[in-house]
Write a structure and sequence with these properties.
Helix 3 runs antiparallel to helix 5 (85-112). The protein has helices spanning 2-11, 13-29, 37-63, 67-75, 85-112, 119-160. It has one domain. The termini are far apart. By secondary structure, it is mainly alpha-helical.
Length: 161
C-alpha cells in the first residue's frame, strides 16, 4: 500500500507542478531567502486551515452516501478498472489527509525551530505548499466527479423505479 501511495504521488499532476515551482524558484531566487518568518507563518496557518477542511469535506461526502449508493460505488470501477469508486474515494481522502497532516507538522517544525533560513527547507516548503494547494484543487474536482456518479446512480434508480 505504501508503494502504491508513493507511486501515485510521484505520478500525479501536483507532483509535476510542484517540481516546476521548485525549478522556477531555483532559477529566479537561487540562494535567496524568500520565505521569511511572516510568510512561513501564513503558510502554516494555511495548512492548519486546510487539514480540518479536507476532513470536513470527506465527512460531508460520506454523509450523503446511503447503503444503495454505497453498493453502487463499490460495484462501479474507476477509469483504470483496478479499483472501485468507493475504494478510490477512501484512498484519495486518506492520502490527502495524511499529506496535509505532514505539511502541518513540517511547517510547524520549520516555523518553531527557525529552520526558515535554510535554503534546503525553503525548497521543501515551496514544494509542499504547491503540492498541497494543487492536491486540494484536485479534491474539489473529485467532489464534482462524486456528484456526477451520484447523479448517475439516481438516474439508474429512477429508471428502475
Amino acid at each position: 500500500m505504501v508503494y502504491k501511495i508513493i507511486k501515485d504521488l510521484v505520478k500525479s499532476m501536483a507532483f509535476v507542478i510542484s517540481l516546476i515551482a521548485i525549478l522556477i524558484y531555483a532559477i529566479f531566487f537561487h540562494n535567496q531567502i524568500v520565505l521569511c518568518k511572516e510568510n512561513l507563518q501564513h503558510i502554516f496557518y494555511f495548512f492548519l486551515a486546510l487539514l480540518p477542511l479536507i476532513i470536513t469535506i470527506f465527512t460531508i461526502l460520506i454523509s450523503f452516501v446511503d447503503s444503495k449508493l454505497l453498493k453502487f460505488l463499490k460495484e462501479s470501477k474507476t477509469k483504470d478498472k483496478k479499483n472501485s469508486i468507493y475504494e478510490e474515494i477512501i484512498y484519495y481522502f486518506l492520502v490527502n489527509t495524511i499529506l496535509s497532516l505532514i505539511a502541518v507538522i513540517l511547517a510547524g517544525s520549520v516555523f518553531c525551530f527557525d529552520f526558515y533560513n535554510n535554503i534546503f527547507m525553503q525548497y521543501i516548503m515551496i514544494f509542499i505548499f504547491t503540492y498541497t494547494l494543487i492536491s486540494f484543487i484536485q479534491i474539489i474536482r473529485f467532489i464534482f466527479y462524486f456528484a456526477k456518479k451520484k447523479a448517475d446512480f439516481v438516474e439508474i434508480i429512477e429508471k428502475r423505479g
